[in-house]
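[Protein data]
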Amino acid sequence: MSFQAQNQKTLTYLSSFLPILAFDSQDTSLVISVKPEDLLFTLEILKKHTNTQYTCLSSVSGVDYPERSRRFEVSYDLLSIKFNSRIRVKTFVDELTPLESSVSVFPGATWWEREVWDMFGVFFDKNSEIKRILTDYGFEGHPLRKDFPLTGNSEVRYSEEQKKVISEPVKLEQNYRNFDYESPWEGTKYIKE
């Protein structure tokens, strides 16, 4: 049986008891989308159901789509060792709505949820370990958001006068730029020789 046929059979079966909004098939794995309020129920059923047994959480990741009303897509990649199959469960949230933590279902999700919060700002309710993991504790913002400034908010440098490392706001100076506001087509006269 091909992977597409197997994925279709699995999807038909899962649709009979899971609140699936949308689905897709990527290579050998199935991708399903659920509402944020149905996420924990879906993860728990996929883990504990006799015919699925997705007992291994391989990753939790995020993506930012600022043009959408629910701009953050959070994906949970699951593996069923018994049935040698993979599934990705996606959900979508905005920057103000917290997502319920999956730590009650998969205790190993703590660090991945910390990373998604640190990089994107998606808050996970009922995760007591939510704090910075990849950036400094005083860091402002979430660097993988599409609207995060490319230069960052502060720079760290060594000061020779103070003989220590200091942190200060980024200054974008334009000392070495020459701005000529004349149009190159209108301001230049060509002389024929």
Summary: Helices lie at 3-15, 39-48, 109-120.
